Amino acid sequence: MGTAEVAKRATAFGHIINIQGDEPLLDPHLIDKLVEKLRSNREVEIVTAAHPFENPADASSPNQVKVVVDLGGHALYFSRASIPFPRNLSGIRYLRHQGIYGFRRDTLLHFVKWKSTPLERAESLEQLRALENSVRVHVLVTAKGSPGVDTPEDANALEQKLARAKRRILS
Known about the structure:
Elements: H1 3-9, E1 15-19, H2 28-40, E2 46-52, E3 66-69, E4 75-79, E5 95-104, H3 105-111, H4 118-123, H5 127-132, E6 137-141, H6 152-170
Parallel strand pairs: 2-6
Antiparallel strand pairs: 1-5, 2-5, 3-4, 3-5
């Protein structure tokens, strides 16, 4: 059952949090931060999260989704390409978008009824559908984030990391 199906049936809930499967190590406190943003600011219809890349070279990977935000913390654009373009390297901070969203229930129910949009299809990023339908997406920028699992190599690296952690705990 998809997130929107749950939202349709869960009429008692005004906020819906969607965590994508490629974020298995997401910090649970981030969920609380998204909920708090929705509760504290009624103008926020969708909220998500991003963090600076640890290695700026990773921003060139099409498997890593990037986001550029305005001075108010709203997404200007999401892309698989490196954005912004590094014409002048001073002060560029590449942000990796994390696969977590907080929706107002009504916004999510509208979102799933909208047809796929040109930018969404071009980038294969559904969050662009919200931007193309004039819905502002607030981005919580955190200092650090969890590693996404976007490729088989990422899955192998995560599996090895978890195995090392388990061995340390059992030692």
